[in-house]
Amino acid sequence: MDDNKTAKNLTASRRRELAQLEKKLGVEFNDIAHLNAALIHTSYANEAGRQSDSNERLEFLGDAVLELASSTYLYKNFKNLSEGELTKTRASIVCQTTLAKLSKNLGLGKMLLLGRGEEISGGRERISILEDTFEAIIGAIYLDLGWEVAKDYIIRQLAPEFANARVGENLKDYKSLLQEFIQREPNKKVEYIELGSSGPDHMKIFEYAAKIDGKIYGKGKGKTKKFAEQVAAHETLKQFGFKD
To answer: pTM of the full predicted structure?
Structure first.
């Protein structure tokens, strides 16, 4: 793809849209054509008769950069995890659900250039397309600005997921602590209720709440029901003044 030619062909309106996206990303491109290329879906390129102009190659590049950046962060910051545990943790963080959510938060679906058929079938909201687009954006950042900028961007975007993984690594038995706490008063009872779940079957996120005497207190999310219950218990304890 001739990036310079593509940049010249961008309309003023498209340039404004891309400039707004740059602000959301917190990244300033040297060549805005790289960012635009990351938003060209293969359906649009096929209809235009220019398949090589789609974002598939940038997606390929971004996927590799994403894996290396997340692996490096986990290796340096989760020193107690074995190779197998590192692999599982990375898979739970760098998953379709997470990447699609980040893509949606950035409004990438609205900025995609889609073919007519993909547009009609709801492609802007399709999880797989949102995931691929986020990876293409990473590829564009790497191509335009290099490894350090791309790595920092990835770590910044995945910070909440890394924090959740850290909580899981160090999580205490908050359910037992909460049980001991409420037993100070006779007849008090705690139960955990499922509020819902999201994500594909192989990578679900569960949400639970701790309920005491019919009143909901803390809520928690996690990749297992037990983890979500522990987080809910922890949040409940904090409401009662508990400090770690």
So the answer is: 0.69
